[in-house]
Amino acid sequence: xxxxxxxxxxxxxxxxxxxxxxxxxxxxxxxxxxxxxxxxxxxxxxxxxxxxxxxxxxxxxxxxxxxxxxxxxxxxxxxxxxxxxxxxxxxxxxxxxxxxxxxxxxxxxxxxxxxxxxxxxxxxxxxxxxxxxxxxxxxxxxxxxxxxxxxxxxxxxxxxxxxxxxxxxxxxxxxxxxxxxxxxxxxxxxxxxxxxxxxxxxxxxxxxxxxxxxxxxxxxxxxxxxxxxxxxxxxxxxxxxxxxxxxxxxxxxxxxxxxxxxxxxxxxxxxxxxxxxxxxxxxxxxxxxxxxxxxxxxxxxxxxxxxxxxxxxxxxxxxxxxxxxxxxxxxxxxxxxxxxxxxxxxxxxxxxxxx
Length: 355
Description:
Layout: H1 2-13, H2 18-26, H3 35-47, H4 56-62, H5 82-86, E1 97-104, H6 107-110, H7 115-119, H8 131-136, E2 141-148, H9 153-159, E3 169-172, H10 173-176, H11 182-210, H12 224-232, H13 241-263, H14 270-277, H15 283-286, H16 289-314, H17 319-343
Antiparallel strand pairs: 1-2, 1-3
Helix pairs in contact: 2-9, 13-16
């Protein structure tokens, strides 16, 4: 009896109308139903009456979005339970969970917003607080459903006709747990070798200092201790004040990006974030774009300063050497950052969506 009551509550409180969903999915079932229709038929059969020894169908409804509380504080939607959905496997292993989500508002509310108007609206100006603009830019009311993995994104979009101008993005457990690519493995090996070199070089450096022995300079190339001292020491010819400006600028940029990333995700108190961004304190956030300009200014200043110093010594300027030096200084760090970002937690994840 408790399971039946729970089932009624889930059907009644879900933001997705499951009755309409099943009608839409099964309306064209003929002699040869599609794999998705077969799975939906089985899901319906396992729900009514519910099978107590295999609750996979009930878990799919349980892990889907529900009507959210706190709408007046900006909690526009519930994203369901991502992990519960992906962990769903029927007793015979033939059906697995597929988590699908999208965000937006009904097209009737967004037709009045033109692309030209949207281009003039930016997050840092605090104009993204308008819910209609949120919907046009991928935010708005989020909705998530959990369905059998046999259903494609195209079939799910036909079954659930909400926010029709946007498409569901779907993912399964297999998409997350895909093996590392060859490039990722090669990069991890290279990074590991560099880490071992740093450990060996630093250990050798500290050992030589401990026994007061003169080290071989080549073996100190990867020493964290020696290189760290060189990086942190200040020379009389350097513009040391620039380092302080860089620190403040970096803190400013990171703070602004952190707030921006939070606002691009579903929030339970979105209106509080909007109030903050439009307040005097929030000026630090939406004026953060100017922090990037300080890096352009400092880069040009330091480049000119070092070039003028070199010209003063040699009275020669080789443009090929100049560009090669700049490339070698920037490319390696940039490539390492891109590779680390790729090999991180998002590596190998494939999200199924319509083109």
